[in-house]
Amino acid sequence: MYVTYCKNKPDSNQLILEHAGTFFDEIQQRHGLANSISSYLIKPVQRITKYQLLLKELLTCCEEGKGELKDGLEVMLSVPKKANDAMHVSMLEGFDENLDVQGELILQDAFQVWDPKSLIRKGRERHLFLFEISLVFSKEIKDSSGHTKYVYKNKLLTSELGVTEHVEGDPCKFALWSGRTPSSDNKTVLKASNIETKQEWIKNIREVIQERIIHLKGALKEPIQLPKTPAKLRNNSKRDGVEDVDSQGDGSSQPDTISIASRTSQNTVDSDKLSGGCELTVVLQDFNAGHSSELSIQVGQTVELLERPSERPGWCLVRTTERSPPQEGLVPSSALCISHSRSSVEMDCFFPLVKEASGALATLTEEQRGT
């Protein structure tokens, strides 16, 4: 309620200026009121900080219900930021999609941005909105009334993002990219106003990437069932060189169940040695090192993928991103999953159902032909 009120307050002030005229001034004089309408309208906003002080004081002298008081204080402490974020989002124009679908707004701030697709190699002022689902880029402008507006420019899906924390030449710069590895063609360089802002954004972007990957993996754990009468599967891509599969079944055949949970072998990364940068990778299975060259990792941890050694098939050389100093070691490739792009490897990792279903149908067909 307070967030909505704060977000709408600039509009309500403008409406009063445009349409109220002397009405509220006359009411104030007629009833001998001490405060103007503007003073009354600002009170709910001022009350937010008063609630914070009250709850902090209650925490120092109350033992019973301390957990609820902490929860209440946490909510009230978040209101100013949420209200400020909501005000900025309300000024975004030209974004044709439903903003509610983008998930919770996590951060918003101004950056200098170098776009790899721009012919002019010059940083541009952009206002960024980090949602759970996407990162939205916009340009700040002033309308005819002098009010700030944000004109939508483009967006990046958080499930396709990779992060390069250090950019040579400026400690406030970092880079975002999509694809297998960062390159000059897909790397967007951002410069924050200070190092603290940069670190906050990198931390939250990495958390969002990790949460999206875990969410996608969890959403695909439910098994699917093949139909009793398999339909013809046709591969529309001639480049694969795979012939169409005709599947015929009888009405008595039982549906086959396919579960992603049992396909840990799909959670692998590219077998070629990576060059030109490192991939951000999320750990999907715990692993305890059994040798000095190996590295212990835990589910949900973020690591950088360095190499897939040819002498150790099924293993990857990774480096930690959350430990100081960083540690390197070998881990099973089946414990990892690409966290930033929807390349063919990641599609195998998160969306193996189509391939698995195709293979299962082909197997059913061969068995039926044999009978």
From TrEMBL:
Keyword annotations from UniProtKB, A to Z: Guanine-nucleotide releasing factor, SH3 domain
Domain SH3: 276-341
Region: Disordered, residue numbers: 227-272
Domain annotation DH: ranges: 1-86
Record keyword Amino-acid biosynthesis present: no
Domain of life: Eukaryota
Matches recorded under SUPFAM superfamilies: DBL homology domain (DH-domain), PH domain-like, SH3-domain
Pfam families, alphabetized: RhoGEF, SH3_1, SOS1_NGEF_PH
Domain PH: from-to ranges: 98-210
GO molecular function terms noted in the UniProt entry: guanyl-nucleotide exchange factor activity
Keyword Lipid biosynthesis: no
Biased composition (Polar residues): 249-269
PANTHER family named among the record's database cross-references: RHO GUANINE EXCHANGE FACTOR-RELATED (PTHR22826), TRIO, ISOFORM A (PTHR22826:SF106)
UniProt protein name: Kalirin
